[in-house]
Each structure stands twice: as structure tokens, then as C-alpha cells.
């Protein structure tokens, strides 16, 4: 195990050869599909984007970036616009959006200090949709490795690969959680809920 030097900020390790891997991926894709994508594949992708509540360009960009399809969303408390009162409160526009999502795993971070199981049950009651898993969000002082472990704790019960999961959140801190967890993408909630899928 390598020793961490003074001044290291616990950021991600930079993989060598990433540019070469991207080049190989693009070349392999071009060899299989040719210069243009067949219309049948475009239609399938448009349908998948609708089922996920994403605009087609968003969906296609994520797929091209990861080489994988999206299999789920990890929502933060802020990403769901929840008000933490005696009983959770969720805006109607969030409920409406959640009801449009099909064929996708829904996972949520529970607030720090709350029991994830109880939070998941209440979240399902107020939203009217099923969340497959819930796990405590990283603590405010969480390091990069701590954030990665929190993401894995949310996804591991369902054996979901992080690079096929999109995080919906609000804060810059939450974006850092997504980066630490090596997730497919972080989408600000304002952008996600305003997305037209027509």
C-alpha cells in the first residue's frame, strides 16, 4: 500500500491511460455501429430516456461517457426537496416526476442521524413510489473515502454498479459525493425536474 504524502487532500487517484481507453472505446463503437447510429437504436434510447425522466441529449451523453445504460438514481435529501418536519413533506412537482420513472432502481440517502429504514418507509408513503434502498448520507465533514463508502452502502444491497447510477442533488458537496462514488453523473435537481422528455 502506498504511503500518502503530506498535503494530499484525499482526492481521487488519477488513472493512467484514461485517454487511451477513451480512444479505444470510441474506435470500437465506430467499428460496430459505423459513422451513424441506426434509427432503431435511437428510438430505443429515446424510449429509455423517457422512462428515466431524462432528455435524450442528457441520456445519450451519459451513455457515451460511461459505455453503460442507466439502471438507477440515487437521490439526496435536498435532491428530493424534502422538508424535514414531524412528517416529511415533498413538493407535488417532485412526486409527479417520480411517478413518471419506469424500469429503474430508486435509492435515497437518509438524513444524518435518522434511521435509514424508517426514512425509506416514510419516503415511500409520501411519494407513492417504491424506493429499493436507503442509506445514511455522508456526514458534513466526510472525507473523499468516507463519501465513497456512503455511496457504496446505498448501492451494495442491490448490487448496483456506481457508474450506472445518476445522483440527483443540489449542493456542491453532493456533487463531490457523486465524484467520490464514481457515479455516472451528478444532475442538479433543478435541471432534472425541469427536463422535458417529449
Spell out the key features of this protein.
Rossmann fold; five-stranded parallel sheet; alpha/beta; 5 strands; single chain
Summarize this structure briefly.
By secondary structure, this protein is an alpha/beta fold.
CATH superfamily: HAD superfamily/HAD-like
Strand percentage: 5-15%
The count of strands amounts to 5
| CATH fold-level label | Rossmann fold
Largest sheet: 5 strands, parallel
Strand-and-helix sequence, N→C? HHHEHEHEHEHEH
Q: What's the end-to-end separation, in Å?
A: 50 Å
Indicate how many domains the architecture comprises.
1
Structural class category: alpha/beta
CATH architecture: 3-Layer(aba) Sandwich
Describe this structure in words.
The protein has 198 residues and is an alpha/beta fold. The protein has one domain (20-198): Rossmann fold, CATH 3.40.50.1000. The protein has helices at 18-33, 39-52, 56-66, 92-100, 116-127, 144-155, 172-180, 189-194, and strands at 72-75, 105-110, 133-136, 165-169, 185-188. It has a five-stranded parallel beta sheet with strand order 3-2-1-4-5, sandwiched between helices. Helix 2 packs across helix 3 and helix 6 (144-155) crosses helix 7. The longest helix is centred in the first third of the chain and has 16 residues, at 18-33. The relative contact order is 0.15.
Amino acid at each position: 500500500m502506498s504511503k500518502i504524502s503530506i498535503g494530499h487532500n484525499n482526492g481521487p487517484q488519477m488513472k493512467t491511460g484514461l485517454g487511451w481507453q477513451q480512444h479505444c472505446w470510441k474506435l470500437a463503437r465506430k467499428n460496430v455501429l459505423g459513422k451513424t447510429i441506426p434509427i432503431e437504436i435511437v428510438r430505443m434510447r429515446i424510449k429509455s430516456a423517457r422512462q428515466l425522466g431524462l432528455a435524450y441529449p442528457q441520456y445519450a451523453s451519459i451513455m457515451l461517457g460511461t459505455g453503460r445504460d442507466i439502471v438507477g438514481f440515487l437521490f439526496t435529501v435536498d435532491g428530493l426537496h424534502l422538508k424535514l418536519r414531524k412528517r416529511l413533506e415533498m413538493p407535488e412537482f417532485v412526486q409527479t416526476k417520480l411517478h413518471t420513472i419506469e424500469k429503474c432502481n430508486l435509492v435515497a440517502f437518509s438524513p444524518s442521524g435518522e434511521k435509514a429504514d424508517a426514512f425509506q418507509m416514510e419516503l415511500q408513503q409520501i411519494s407513492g413510489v417504491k424506493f429499493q434502498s436507503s442509506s445514511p448520507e455522508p456526514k458534513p465533514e466526510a472525507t473523499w473515502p468516507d463519501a465513497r463508502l456512503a455511496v457504496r452502502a446505498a448501492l451494495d444491497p442491490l448490487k448496483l454498479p456506481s457508474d450506472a447510477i445518476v445522483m440527483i442533488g443540489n449542493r456542491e458537496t453532493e456533487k463531490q459525493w457523486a465524484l467520490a462514488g464514481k457515479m455516472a453523473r451528478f444532475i442538479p435537481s433543478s435541471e432534472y425536474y425541469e427536463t422535458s422528455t417529449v
